[in-house]
Design brief:
The chain is mainly alpha-helical. It is built from 4 helices and no strands.
């Protein structure tokens, strides 16, 4: 699990504010609704390719860099 947490909150905030369903958003990303849930809950981290797709689909509101934990 990610220690940082900012990525999943940003992702959830985007989904809620966009008005798009989670299923539709997952489809646009090419992932399952279940995997999106794991991303939102901080239980999975996306590949670089998926992180870029998320960045693009959210118009930068969930940037690729948000998935990298802050240095301690």
């Amino acid at each position: 699990m990610f220690a940082c947490g900012k990525h999943w909150r940003m992702l959830t905030d985007f989904i809620l504010s966009s008005g798009v369903s989670r299923t539709s958003f997952a489809d646009r990303l090419g992932i399952s609704r279940a995997y999106l849930s794991l991303l939102e809950n901080g239980k999975k981290t996306p590949s670089l390719e998926l992180a870029v797709r998320i960045d693009r689909e959210t118009a930068g509101r969930v940037p690729v860099s948000s998935w990298v934990p802050d240095a301690a």
